[in-house]
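Worked problem 6 (solution included).
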Amino acid sequence: MSLFLPRWASLSLFSGAVALSSMFCTTNANAVFDKRFDIVTFCCPCSPDDHMCQSQFDHLNWVSTNGHMVVMGTDAHRSEVNANGNFLGAYINDLNTGYGSVTGATRADQIESSILANFTNTGVKTTWVVLNEISAGLWPGTSAYRAWVIAVASRLKNTYGHSVIVCAPFQNPGANDADWVSLSNSAYIGIECYLSGQEVNASGNSVSWCQGQYQASKNSYLNRGIPSSQLYLVEHFGQTTTDTGWGRSGVSYAGWDNAINTRSTAAHNVGFAGFISYAWAKNAMLATDTDLLHFEDTYRAKTLP
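Solution. The predicted structure is:
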């Protein structure tokens, strides 16, 4: 007997009988989807320089052959995500809350409680979790903090069954190899290797230049002992102002289009295991909503990871 289901469906079999007891949308860790993660946290209405509304969400929730992961703060839009053949992930923006006062295991329990509260209202809890972010100040020189982060990721994976991505604000780490490897045993590492529109334009929109930056960053993690299969790239898509150092960084409309296209081609050529887009809501340049949607469409037209 063959059962043909949408790729997000799950089956339950009882008492040895082949019975379809339930069909529901989920984000199974083994589901085959493009490892492309778009962080889309609603804030509407919000301030002009920081908002994410329905039309912005719609343009990131596009239909594709395999589907991709839409990472959100709650499961309120699960039906829309799944209707387009996509998958829902959980975004946790406060990894480090409680460090110094609670154990890593306790922090993982708190995160799980938050996921159960926010991601079981319209279906089963999400499997994929993106954690923002490792502390740039603590990780390099504080072994207790590194052990704490590893404990958080380990418990989320091994006790609660999550596929975990931990964002890392280090373009080229050069130490703490054993701890990086331990973390990668429980989590994918989301490398924040941000190439701003200003930098990319200054390179002449050179794919080769961008590719060199991304490859050097990836190599730094490979040299720590982390397997390539655990390395994701995170890129910043905020409408930032000149000299910010990430996101658009003040370049023109055409310049930002060129930068998005160039960066994306370079990232694809390097071959990260996954790609995460970030900061779509940030709009310090006060670009119009029409422009914001255009840049989302520029991005989604590129092949990633």
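Discussion: The chain is about 35% helix and 15% strand.
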